[in-house]
Task: structure prediction
Amino acid sequence: MHETPDTTNDTSADGSPNASGNGDGDGSPNASGNDSANGNRAIAAERVLVLGGTGKSGRRVARRLPGARIGSRAGTPPFRWEDPTTWGPVLEGMEAVFLCYVPDAAAPGAPETIGAFSELAVARGVRRLVLLSGRGEERTVESERAMRRAGAEWTVLRGSWFAQNFSEDFLLDAVLGGEVVLPAAPGVAEAFLDAEDIADCAVAALTGPGHAGRVYELTGPRLLTFDEAVGEIGAAIGRDVRFRAVPRGRYAEILAGAGMPPEVVALLTEVFGAVLDGRNAHLTGDVAAILGRAPRDFSAYVAEAAATGAWGERSPTPSAPRAPRGERSPIPPTLNGPRGERSPRPSALNGSPMDGR
Result:
């Protein structure tokens, strides 16, 4: 597919309208999601609940909303997706909620949990829901529909693969080890998205008018292959960093060999194997439509991350190519992932490494 900066007539993979449209994705209307008098009202930061507020995307959203309530295990009151008794207290007095589901909106049971939470939120007075979803990820569609059916104003943010995956938890260990391994199609391109941009988009949808009933597909400004992406990182830090694509089956073996629980292996292999098949190798103009500016370029992210020491100090001279070695786990064994909160239990399916991909 080719670049499509004009999203006026864009539709998402499941047939639901993109930035310019409304609907439930299955062709049915959803009047509660349409812009209305309420949809055009601003919401104060103090009335916003940020779920996953200590994770990669959530903490950036929270940083932009001083006074917002943070929904996390360590929050006051504490919040846990797996414990519905914690839901009511964090919703008290809230008008808008940023929904960042742990481990991922594509996980088994996610639609039911997101739907139940959304219904409770509306019953407690919440009128605006913003869901962080995954671009090109078919299994997230049911979670999106479950949120929409609750009856609040809704916005869906379908994120591309986050640039920060290379520097925060998920692929950091792989970059430092010199090799990033993923079940990607050979030469597949990705529209790497800066987490700062998705936070800006989330804040606009949570607090401002004009975004109710919208499905946004958020991308960076250009396509890069994973080879090109890790090449830019390697050049910035003066080290040799390589990318290696492996078949899904081999990726599953690597994860299992690293001690990943079977449900984690199945989820990561299925989702990554699907979204890295080339389906997302095109751009949209949705970040610009929301923010009125171009999305941040991958090179800007790399320069800032390198300058702040995300990958350690720069090598004075580029390192020599590494000799072949045994395969490394492509993700840290604790699954401290980019989208969700850090898991208190290494074996838990918490803290997804699939933060908008």
Q: What stands out?
A: Residues 110-123 form the longest helix (14 residues). Strands lie at 48-51, 69-71, 96-99, 128-134, 153-159, 179-182, 189-190, 214-218, 224-225, 242-245. DSSP finds eleven helices and ten strands in the chain. The longest strand covers residues 128-134.
